[in-house]
Amino acid sequence: MNRKSTDDLIHELMSKPSFDAYLHANEPFFSEKGVTELLAQLYAKKDLTKAELARRAGISEVYLHQVFAGRRNPSRDRLLCICIGLGATLEETQRILTQGSYAQLYPRTRRDAIISYGLVHQLPLEEINDKLFAEQEQTLL
């Protein structure tokens, strides 16, 4: 099964004669994974403990465990911190933000551009926050 781009899905959505026809034709392409599952999959690929992840993400271990257990729904900024702590790619981060019903990072926004640069260049949270502060933008934590 080939992946369809978001643009392809939008085009089909607008061109199908009915919504039911669109749903039926594209059922395999809908993402059913939630933020917790996506984070768990990404974490499983990494060689770090949850304690190390919490430290890198600048959050408490208790909070991190609650997120991974699905008991806490992190804000956009905390989710970004977790992605940075995991060493997620920009693409992985965008997908997690989307599944969390948050806006993706937008390169025309100074703050988002700085965060995106940090993700692409695998900068630690402290460096990203330092750059945000230096540019008079709100830090992540």
Task: Compose a concise summary of this entry.
The chain has 141 residues and is mostly helical. It is built from 9 helices and no strands.
Can you offer a commentary on this structure?
With 141 residues, the protein is an all-alpha fold. It folds into 2 domains: 1-30, no CATH class; 35-134, lambda repressor-like DNA-binding domains (434 Repressor (Amino-terminal Domain)). It is 61% helix and 0% strand. α3 packs antiparallel against α7 (90-99) and α6 (76-86) packs antiparallel against α7. The N and C termini lie far apart (41 Å). The relative contact order is 0.11. The model has no long low-confidence stretch (mean pLDDT 91).
Count of helical stretches:
9
Mean pLDDT: 91
Supply the helix-strand structural class: mainly alpha
| β-strand amount | under 5%
